[in-house]
Amino acid sequence: MNSPAYRSASASGVPAASRAAYSGLAAVMMFAVLLASYSINAMDRQIFPLLAADVRHEFGFGLADIGLLSTIFTLGMAVAGVPTGFLLARLSRKSATIIGIAIFSIGTILTTSAHGFADMLLFRAATGIGEAMQLTVIIGIGTSYFTRFRSTAVGAVNFAFGVGAIIGPVAGGKLLAIHHAWRFPMIVFGALGFVAILVILIAVRKGFSETLALENTQVQTQAAPTLWNRNTILLTVLSLIGGLIIYGYLGMYPTFLREHLGFTPALTGRVMGAYGLGVFASIAGGWVGDRFSARKVLFVCFLIAAALGYGLFHAATTLLEQSVLSFFWGLVVSGTIYVNLAGYHIRSVSGHLNSKASGVFVSSLYGSAAVAGYTIGWLATHAGWSAAGLTQISLTACAGALISLALQPSRMALRARRATPLSAADPA
Q: N or C, where is the chain less crowded by C-beta within 10 Å?
């Protein structure tokens, strides 16, 4: 292929010319298939917290224990994120995606056969290993193929999560109402993963999935040639903070609504659906990150997150108030902070390090997320929900805002320009 902007992974046996064979619509459609598979993943992420009260009632787990079960999958993600980035040097992205979905789906189904806390904890952690493989690869594919809009591509991934975040609680609530058994919704969502594997095998071509980005010589960039650089280090710290606040909310917020505010499962599902609607802004959040300073974007958004956290766990008590705040939480925190942390990680290094940078993001954010549910549950038990939200959400977000000011946007890659030989294949 003539353009210097792209190459294909020789290790996967995909010829360089294969990329030009796909029109912009074909590339978008294949990416959409991968995004749909991630939506199924998101359904389970949202359904387990919704079912947590039922699981707790059956097994007699404590509040901190059920919080750990809700977020322990992130430990698996933290453990597998960086290794997946390096594994892709030997394994094709398509194969890694399929393996990841299979691990995730099997772990989801096995959760329903758990006899106690220990084996359920193991199964939930295993799902995170599969999700880390899937997420790292999908982000790598999107940011390598759609190089002109890297953060927007990550936004599309999170948009897919928003789809699952809406469908999961609603569908899970209805399945629970029909069968009155928390295991049934998890078996259904786990089985859907194998349907996704079949569709990926048929619809996604390696000429698309294995495309790797090279430096575009038409663009002057100061991105670092190594992962060991100031921006990546700061972004890793910010990702650790992001994991605490994002999964402090996702892991225990439904339990807070049901046990502290007395919301029914149906009302809790409606509030979490409002959060999912906010996540739909992820593509717009990525667009903002592609066009404005990383320092400004993250500073402002972390401050807004601090205010929202205070409102969610301290001020709001009605369904409307909680729904509105959850919507803006999804828009600002998941739709903008999460998306741009991933995008800025990738823009901080040279193109050949995309997958490894994605792995660092996954491991750091989900490393802290692994304990986020436990810590906020522990704080709620010993100091009350208001103090827990103030400490883990608001004050931690304020620290993230201050750290954001130390970023160096001038040391991040600029957006790649459209490569004229590939104009027919570039969906942008």
A: C
